[in-house]
Amino acid sequence: MVVESFPVPIAIEYDIAVQGGKANSSDRKQARKRPSIEELFTRDRDVLFTVLGLLDPATLARVSLASRSWNALGSEERLWEIHCRVEPLCRNSWTPQTIVKNGGWKKFYANRAKEAKLVQELFNERDVVTFRDLWLTTGEILWENVIGPLIPI
Amino acid sequence: MSEADPEITLETYDKHQIKIPKSIATRSAIINMMIEDTGDVNEVVPLADKSCTLNIMNRVIEYLKKHAEFDNTGADDEVINEFDKEFQEQSDEIIFQTILAANFLDIKNLLELMCKKVADEIKKCKTPDDIRDRFNIRKDYTPEEVEEVKRAHPWIYDKNAK
């Protein structure tokens, strides 16, 4: 008998949100004190994405780290499609095929950032001038211009 | 400009009536459409969205009137920006409701202005903890999940980890 192993669909990872609703009553009371952005925007998710669309990748990362449901919001593909199309890190390297291969826009962005980070770590050990020269002469963009200095969180 | 500017009556979600000049009302694409649909300026225009309460509508109308005035007088950008900036300074509750109302009424520049305010507030938060505090979000992550989410965002680094 042959047992086929199916690849895990990517969508599962985006699904980690949602089950966060088991707050006890005192938690709920606390949440009532101030208007919660989620509560107000559940009526209109498109509006929420208008807000999130104004955020840069670094801020979106902080948003994703805030809670499960915010991670789901911050992983919305349409936000990352925009960043992949405009950010220097990705804008010249994406193709429909690479997006599919990487498992979506956000994953593609993340993989490009990972590569850039590796390059930076490699060159960190040499002097800055070499690093600059190499990137400039190969026509590539400087790391600092690509995603800025690494963002502390 | 020379043609008459009849008054339009709006009925807010909480059943108050507001009278405003047609030239102001039609700055909302939705109200404009509703007036054109009935073809009768005397008919009351009901605002069916929860966000369109008297309180919020008064603010929306204040914004529309001011911007109509800016357009008519050709005001400096500086003056407009100053008004906009002051208009943004409100409690979260009012900001959120204004966004929902502007979205419902299809008033693009007001929607953009208020969304930008919320985005700026999020940007001001320098850590995920700040975001949770500012927007009253409950932390529901396990430590393992936090690590996983961090790995999914390789363009940031954890300064505590180094």
Automatic annotation (TrEMBL), chain A:
A Pfam family it matches: F-box-like
Protein name per the record: F-box domain-containing protein
Listed InterPro entries: F-box-like_dom_sf, F-box_dom
Limits of the F-box domain: 46-84
SUPFAM superfamilies: F-box domain
Organism field: Guillardia theta (strain CCMP2712) (Cryptophyte)
Annotated Gene3D superfamilies: 1.20.1280.50
Superkingdom of the source species: Eukaryota
TrEMBL record, chain B:
Position of the signal peptide: none
Top-rank lineage group of the source organism: Eukaryota
Domain SKP1 component POZ: 7-68
Record protein name field: SKP1-like protein
Family the UniProt entry places it in: Belongs to the SKP1 family.
InterPro entries: SKP1 (IPR016897), SKP1-like (IPR001232), SKP1-like_dim_sf (IPR036296), SKP1/BTB/POZ_sf (IPR011333), Skp1_comp_dimer (IPR016072), Skp1_comp_POZ (IPR016073)
GO biological process: protein ubiquitination; ubiquitin-dependent protein catabolic process
The SKP1 component dimerisation domain, residue ranges: 108-156
Keywords from the named record: Ubl conjugation pathway
This protein's pathway: Protein modification; protein ubiquitination
